[in-house]
Design goal:
The complex is a heterodimer of chains A (146) and B (126). Helix content of chain A is 48%, strand content 0%. By secondary structure, chain A is an all-alpha fold. The longest helix of chain A has 28 residues, at 87-114. Chain A has a domain at 53-141. With 126 residues, chain B is mainly alpha-helical. Chain B has a domain at 15-41 and 67-124. Chain B contains 3 helices and no strands. Chain B has helices at 12-55, 69-89, 95-124. In chain B, helix 1 runs antiparallel to helix 2, helix 1 packs parallel to helix 3 and helix 2 (69-89) runs antiparallel to helix 3. Chain A binds chain B through residues 1-2, 73, 79, 81-82, 89, 92-93, 95-97, 99-100, 102-103, 106-107, 109-110, 113-114, 130, 133-134, 136-138, 141-142, and chain B through 1-3, 31-32, 35, 93, 97, 100-101, 103-104, 106-108, 110-115, 117-119, 122.
């Protein structure tokens, strides 16, 4: 893209411009080409860039939490969710039972892998969402504490 | 003058792969939704039958149960919401990422679905 950049001293002839914004020789004339607007960079991060220590701590915390979730889902693997149903639904529930055990590890991996070009904050927010969605309620419901 | 930008065009291979991923997971999520609708019908009928039985007994009215509509509707909503979120987050993603995200969405929806399969009967406690 070529820019019709003109120095503020008005040495460039503006007569060829399609639109005129006033006298370039006027002392109060402001030329937009020399007054760039500061735009906040919201672009993607470099996937090859090293993680900050804060990000590593955050991912470590969620990784530990997800590991606990996996153990909790594993401990409730024998829970009976449905009974007296057809074969297809039984297979479906067994598949979901397996997936719920591996879901925390899957979520953690996919957020880090698929979101490696995303900002750290958005990846941590996805991790937080996973911590809410994957909470092992069956572990609490099938056990009495105290 | 802006230089002509090259048109980003999806090659047929990944496009077909993406369609396959969408169709497979749409079928799985649809099955989950159908089962949830079945749960809603079964549970609401069971509650009605239970309450009707209680009305025939003396003093049994106080044991009447109410249908947990909120949880049953949430049960139905899980799969469509998970599918929509997965589809929205993978609009411009590569095939492998799309498949991974849909697998995670299905696993997460499944975990929530199992939560409710365990939780709703406990609310009723016939």
């Amino acid at each position: 893209m070529t820019t019709a950049a003109s120095p503020p001293d008005g040495s460039v002839d503006h007569d060829d411009d399609a639109l005129s914004w006033g006298d370039a020789d006027d002392a109060t004339h402001v030329d937009a080409a020399h007054n760039p607007v500061a735009v906040k960079d919201r672009g993607e991060r470099d996937p090859e860039a090293p993680e900050t220590s804060g990000a590593l701590v955050g991912f470590g915390v969620f990784g530990g939490l997800y590991l606990l979730y996996t153990v909790a889902w594993l401990l409730t693997a024998s829970t009976s969710y449905v009974s007296g149903v057809d074969t297809l639904l039984t297979v479906f529930v067994e598949v979901l039972r397996f997936l719920s055990i591996v879901a925390p590890a899957l979520w953690f991996t996919v957020v880090l892998w698929a979101g490696r070009a995303s900002r750290t904050r958005s990846r941590l927010l996805w991790m937080l969402l996973g911590a809410v969605v994957l909470f092992p309620w069956p572990f609490l419901m099938t056990r009495s504490f105290g | 003058m802006t230089a002509a930008t090259p048109t980003a065009r999806r090659t047929p291979g990944p496009l077909v792969g993406r369609i396959v991923v969408l169709v497979v997971f749409a079928a799985l999520f649809a099955y989950m939704t159908v089962q949830s609708i079945g749960n809603l019908v079964t549970v609401s009928q069971s509650v009605q039958a239970f309450n009707a039985f209680l009305e025939t007994t003396s003093g049994g009215g106080s044991l009447a149960r109410s249908t947990p509509w909120v949880w049953l509707v949430l049960d139905i909503a899980i799969a469509p919401v998970a599918f929509a979120v997965a589809w929205w987050t993978t609009r411009r993603a590569r095939l492998a990422v799309t498949a991974g995200v849909f697998l995670v969405a299905f696993a997460a929806a499944g975990a929530l679905w199992l939560d409710l399969q365990l939780f709703v009967p406990r609310l009723l406690d016939f």
